[in-house]
Amino acid sequence: MSNRRELILNYKQSTRPMGVYQIKNQKTGKIFIGGSLNLPGSFNSHRFQLNYRVHRNIKLQEDWHLFGQDAFTFDILETINPEEIAKEQWRDAVSKLEEEWLAKLSPYNNKGYNKQKIKR
């Protein structure tokens, strides 16, 4: 039992890969861009929501249902090295990197599943 507790503690204290990812529909070429402090966790969360038809992105959900799970790939576009940034700045660094990728790839309308944010 002690070994199990130690493994859990080590997992909680370890850092997960963080950065920007894309979910790509191989049939249509449409992409969804996101950022996360836990990339493997985000992939698992998206797959779970899509498979159980509860994903908040309706267009992505519709295509997942139409084309099936095998039509989609989950790819890491860029990671952040947590050792180079203070822990308090991780979230902001991921957000900034995500904004850069959104500007670069413009995954909106016919090109993707993201919704453009209204700038005020």
Describe the structure.
Helix content is 42%, strand content 19%. The chain is of the alpha+beta class and 120 residues long. It has a single domain, classed as GIY-YIG endonuclease, CATH 3.40.1440. Strands 2-1-3 form a three-stranded antiparallel sheet, sandwiched between helices. The radius of gyration is 16 Å and the shape is globular. The termini are far apart. The mean pLDDT is 93.
**At the third CATH level, what is the topology name?**
GIY-YIG endonuclease
What is the approximate shape? globular
- Main β-sheet description: 3 strands, antiparallel
Give helix % range.
40-55%
Quaternary structure type: single chain
Instruction: Please state the CA-atom Rg, rounded to the nearest Å.
Output: 16 Å
- Order the strands across the largest sheet as they lie in space: 2-1-3
Name its key features:
GIY-YIG endonuclease; 120 residues; globular; alpha+beta
Task: Give a short summary of the structure.
The chain has 120 residues and is of the alpha+beta class.
